[in-house]
Sequence to fold (1889 residues):
Amino acid sequence: MAAAAAAAVGGPQPPQAEVPAPGLALDKAATAAHLKAALSRPDNRAGAEELQALLERVLSAERPLAAAADGEEAAAAGGGGGPGAAEEEALEWCKCLLAGGGGYDEFCAAVRAYDPAALCGLVWTANFVAYRCRTCGISPCMSLCAECFHQGDHTGHDFNMFRSQAGGACDCGDSNVMRESGFCKRHQIKSSSNIPCVPKDLLMMSEFVLPRFIFCLIQYLREGYNEPAADVPSEKDLNKVLQLLEPQISFLEDLTKMGGAMRSVLTQVLTNQQNYKDLTSGLGENACARKSHEKYLIALKSSGLTYPEDKLVYGIQEPSAGASTLAVQGFASAAGTLGQLDSSDEEDQDGSQGLGKRKRVKLSSNTKDQSIMDVLKHKSFLEELLFWTIKYEFPQKMVTFLLNMLPDQEYKVAFTKTFVQHYAFIMKTLKKSHESDTMSNRIVHISVQLFSNEELARQVTEECQLLDIMVTVLLYMMESCLIKSELQDEENSLHVVVNCGEALLKNNTYWPLVSDFINILSHQSVAKRFLEDHGLLVTWMNFVSFFQGMNLNKRELNEHVEFESQTYYAAFAAELEACAQPMWGLLSHCKVRETQEYTRNVVRYCLEALQDWFDAINFVDEPAPNQVTFHLPLHRYYAMFLSKAVKCQELDLDSVLPDQEMLMKLMIHPLQIQASLAEIHSNMWVRNGLQIKGQAMTYVQSHFCNSMIDPDIYLLQVCASRLDPDYFISSVFERFKVVDLLTMASQHQNTVLDAEHERSMLEGALTFLVILLSLRLHLGMSDDEILRAEMVAQLCMNDRTHSSLLDLIPENPNPKSGIIPGSYSFESVLSAVADFKAPVFEPGGSMQQGMYTPKAEVWDHEFDPVMVILRTVYRRDVQSAMDRYTAFLKQSGKFPGNPWPPYKKRTPLHPSYKGLMRLLHCKTLHIVLFTLLYKILMDHQNLSEHVLCMVLYLIELGLENSAEEESDEEASACGPERCHDSWFPGSNLVSNMRHFINYVRVRVPETAPEVKRDSLASTSSDSLGSLQNSGTAQVFSLVAERRKKFQEIINRSNSEANQVVRPKTSSKWSAPGSAPQLTTAILEIKESILSLLIKLHHKLSGKQNSYYPPWLDDIEILIQPEIPKYSHGDGITAVERILLKAALQSRMNKRIIEETCRKVTPPVPPKKITAAEKRTLDKEERRQKARERQQKLLAEFASRQKSFMETAMDVDSPESDIPMEITTAEPQVSEAVYDCVICGQSGPSSEDRPTGLVVLLQASSVLGQCRDNIEPKKLPISEEEQIYPWDTCAAVHDVRLSLLQRYFKDSSCLLAVSIGWEGGVYVQTCGHTLHIDCHKSYMESLRNDQVLQGFSVDKGEFTCPLCRQFANSVLPCYPGSNVENNLWQRPSNKSIQDLIKEVEELQGRPGAFPSETNLSKEMESVMKDIKNTTQKKYRDYSKTPGSPDNDFLFMYSVARTNLELELIHRGGNLCSGGASTAGKRSCLNQLFHVLALHMRLYSIDSEYNPWRKLTQLLEEMSSQLGNEEQQPEVPILYHDVTSLLLIQILMMPQPLHKDHFTCIVKVLFTLLYTQGLVALSVKCNEEDRSAWKHTGALKKNTCDAEKSYEVLLSFVISELSKGKLYHEEGTQECATIIPVAWSPESMEKYLQDFCLPFLRITSLLQHHLFGEDLPSCQEEEEFSVLSSCLGLLPTFYQTEHPFISASCLDWPVPAFDIISQWCFEINSFTERHAEQGKALLIQESKWKLPHLLQLPENYNTIFQYYHRKTCSVCTKVPKDPAVCLVCGTFVCLKGLCCKQQSYCECVLHSQNCGAGTGIFLLINASVIIIIRGHRFCLWGSVYLDAHGEEDRDLRRGKPLYICKERYKVLEQQWISHTFDHINKRWGPHYNGL
Fold:
């Protein structure tokens, strides 16, 4: 907006520009103040003009922007410093002018003071963390920002945290959307009253300046928009313009944040129509303004919109003068692509079979629609701003600005109306957009704020026809992707459906519109208008019919379909979102009687639409074969409104049902779906690929079932209850294609099914009938009963977590109705039917979640197999439910065998549906049941137990639901002779059960056995030949029955039906007798259903005469029929139960049962076992034998497995005692024998074929994390709490080493301490051994095996071939015995002086590296491995890089690290004794050999060997200090004694002699004790020291003075007083040392504590080297037990005395001499450095066990602090923040910003903090991630919700609480270094975490 630009442009200057040009350069503030004063005068015209002129100039429209956007920056006219500078200048001006001369910031503050903030209105964008409280929300979309949520009180509410998908705004303070009780403290006060009135002059300037500013912005937007030729805005140009406008829009956004006062000014400006007209009309002589107006008109036109003033409302006339030719092309192409054709343009459409035209003509002729779609007129800034916002595809900044204004009520209304006015345009833009996802989110971001508010939605519906607009827009949107339906009659179908393959459906582009629609329908007032408006309902049904029959599947019969389309999911989503959800929304308002009218309307138009549909697809009575569509939304609308009418509105069902013919049509397609489901599960659709299974699953899946399968089944139930039952039953069997199977004959031909599919199709048909007859979801169950039934079904399949239950139980998709997750009823039902199983933790086990499992009484009474079958997506879940049921019955002792699904009592039927039960009492069903029972008894093939089960279930249902007709039944039963006309006399099952059927005529193939039997009349037991009876034999054909009924119904329902009946073209349905090779046979049957049942009982139980009527023994049974013994059991139980019920229902039945049993009972002549029975018996025997064989095999296998598990050491249970693989040698054998787990040979390890232990080497910094205070550190959760690492063990040791290196000789320093506190190498083994050459070939095979392993073979990683434990090296076993043998352990009686000499001598021998054997090579390579395990910085501490001292230090520190870690694994002390868990698999012995071998290569020069300083008095003390220039050696009292121990032992030739070991320990103990005394003396104050000095001096000459600590202490004090150690104690020093009253007891305790760490490590070492067990003891006696175990205590020591540590001392040379020698070194050092000298003497020896940081109870505290925290490196808020649980460092996971040399921050931190092991908590996911070297794994979460569940990625957003047990497990794995073994799912991270 360069000021210079105005002058440079040649266009006419505005006439008012009389302000002299230099005036611009004047001080802005002064100008602003002057103008403000001018405007405050009563007559302010002059001021106004002056201001206008200034603004013209500053905000000049002629600016270089257009040029910049076109990429012609060079042409930027006079571009004073480029566009940016000019714009900033303009913004500065505006700020100055607004402030009227004052400071802008002060102005902002002043305006804010007048903010009546009753609403929060904070706007956020995607990914923001917000809250939703269902308890406080009125609208389901309510959301709160974190601040308002935490300030409000939501304890005990049902709330969750969520990540915003599309952005949103905070509703706090808005009582239309949420209850006031939930407002936060800031927005509770309705504060409008106490805010003072805004002074007029404060905002006066704003009122003048802002209109110009906004107009300027609009001009920018007009200029920047170039209509691209291809009708697709090129992203680049638009983004460029938007970038340039960033500062302006941000400026507006800041204005909105100033609060209510400024917002109301902005509202005035944006909605004032006069202002808009004046500024933008484009009249006047300003060329620039004119040009911009033209561009605006062009943009309107090219969007396919018209500007009402122009003459081109429809069609295109001559382009008006201002428009360019481009506009015309744009318009035409827009019209063409969108298909929004005006009438004039209609003919050009490519005549795609005229189908699109037919629809579109209908829509275009309706002028109202046309105007909705095509006319826009802008009357205010707000309207044009929204227009450009849409044009530019909703830039985030603009959206935020528009939403920030919403707290202003007046604006809210104006904006909503504007939004509605542009609704159609939004849709068009969305359809064309490339970034439709982003755009959808932004649209919903806006609309959800507007339409969630009921009051507003109602107002807009009334004033702006919101509903009309939405429905029309949806209709238009779907019109663009219609195709011809191929359902039923492919050629002549007139029906069109949406094409699911189109992007519009595939990418869900329609969801913003649908979600808005659902949102407004959730408001009662709006929904009522919708339901009352007949025109709208018609249009809506028209819309729904687009989805009716979409995604048609045709069964592939020949070859497999070559391309499996995955569009089916788009179809299901579309039906759910666009049809079902609006339906649930409407249904939620039809809950009371008063709303009956609405239901009638919907049902009426629904039926009309259905009738149209049947006509369009040319449907008569037979569905086309091999086709199925799962999408029948019209049927489902109809069904759900019927259900609601009966359930809630007390409507008479018959009043809303159509005639019989329509019902017959209605039932066809839903029935077709049920049959197709059975076909799909029978693998008949296998050639259609997997996707068809996917459809079948989705159809019943929990999110879809109550909008899909449930309405379908309900509709079928309604049809069944009103249609003729015989017709219905025969239709079912015909649809399932099993008609031909229902014959008495043993063989049959099925013309429509292959034999292998028959059984499962029959099962499907019967199961469907059972579901149809026993499901009560819509037939009378209350909501709570439904919820309970759903829950029981899900829990019976599997134990479930709380969240999966919520997910699996279908709720009405509309959140306002029915069950809301977490609602009261859900929780109460859950606690009634299920028990909570809290998660258990086995170390190394998988992380379990809290589960709910059904209570015992639920299994007992409520387990409902029918519901389970209906709700299972996978068939295996039904099996799983039955298995669990079986297990329950076994466990509770109710039934031992394999039970059948139990029969469950049903809730009573609603009276309207009573007709449904007629299905059970119709002859057709009875004939089918009879036939099937007969076939099962005769062992016909193709029948399964499942068929029998369902048959019995149906019989039982019939008995349960029989009409009480006992009396007339008796009358009709005068004997079977009379009823020859038909199979059964009546239709009541109870009486038909006892009816005997004698002969049946069947059609059979000529090959059937029945035919042959016919010729021999004698086979019939009856003397009458079968032929005489042929007249009386029953014939039955289902198909014929059905035809007959159908004809009757049709004739009854309309007279001219004759022409409706189609000639039967398909030969498929021709009469069953057409096949020539069929012949008729007559079977003699002579059975009734009852007699068949009794025989069946015999057959099932496998013995004759097994059934005995129970009431003969116990007449009571008939009085109290509910007997628990019958409720669970197998088929036998079921038969008994049915017979009992039959007997109960009628006396006749009871009599006949008794007779039948008697008939069978008399001893008959030994009857030949029929072939069938023999087969059964054989089968049984064979089965029995097979079972026994199997048992035997299994037992054998189990024992083998067990023995394997005993040898294979199982990592997961370190507790169990597993014998060590390395077999300990018998005393007489000297060599240890090893088993190789690869080649399986056993033998000793030898020089040329060494054996090795499988080991895992890993660098560890666990030791370094020990701290000296007991309180574990907490994870910081505020800025104040920070963790500083200087009190960790690693830090203390580091400081000590660098201090020593400052003052002493480097090589000597490196012997005085240990390293490895950080990055030490820890060696662990699984205990298995292998030959090293076998291992090499094993590694080769792994290398060639290309299977993706979780480890890297190139880095030497592998898994143990036996136990699969992770490993990366092999540690060679030293030939010879495993544990140093007895001859080495016999104590010799040499004096200590002799031993000391021997030790010195042995150390002096140079260690030659053994000759080049395989063993020595391996020793070398494993040493290399050990070195490479840790980073260089953890190995090199010497000042001279690469010095041998470094290696020396590193090697003995490895030993130290392993001993210290083992100590920590034992809990930090050795009280428990024994070979502990760690000891069982220790490889320390082998490790010691390897280290000793290498350390012997570096012989320490005998001059410097500390051994001499310890054991000899050196004469020339003074000479040592003579040479000043050379740094002195480290004084022996500064040495770390444990390090000295390891050096001394590793310098000895191996194997070591026990005597030498004890000798070294004794000598070192004297040094240690002296160090303790020195430290004690430094710790106490001056008076104490002098007192001790004297008391000790008195006892100095007693006999055991050398073993009295008082004497020694006094001597130490007197020696050290010679130097300056105790001097220079300035005042500041005294403060640090706490004055302790030292008593003898406390001093003794101090000395023991000081020495204990050394004793523990030494005892462990002795245990590993010599295999001696550690004694267990109490904590207080640990010191004495260890010291006697180490041989420090003389054996004759009496234990009565209180134990004194000094009695362990055994001085090799006179104590006082050696002590004074040691003290002399100290004194000479403290001469110069007293401070440091003192610091080095006080060593901290009491380290506590390492711990991870302590975490807060509630996860929210962590989340709120860290998820917004900025990263310290890049100062941005990381996308994936993480925090280290070891040290509390905050890191960016995967953050590229913090990458260093290709390592991301987490990997880098894991190397620095844990030497390659990192434990991070991912803040946004609540999950812990482990990094180990180059691999990582997700460990799980230590935070669980109230139901014991993880919430990964915080998807559910429920409050999470720490699970202490899990955290303990994590810490345990960290300390024991077992991450690699326990966690199985590792993957490489490529340094990218």
User: Anything to note?
Assistant: The CA atoms of residues 1004 and 1078 lie 5 Å apart. The longest helix spans residues 1171-1207. The chain has a mean pLDDT of 78.
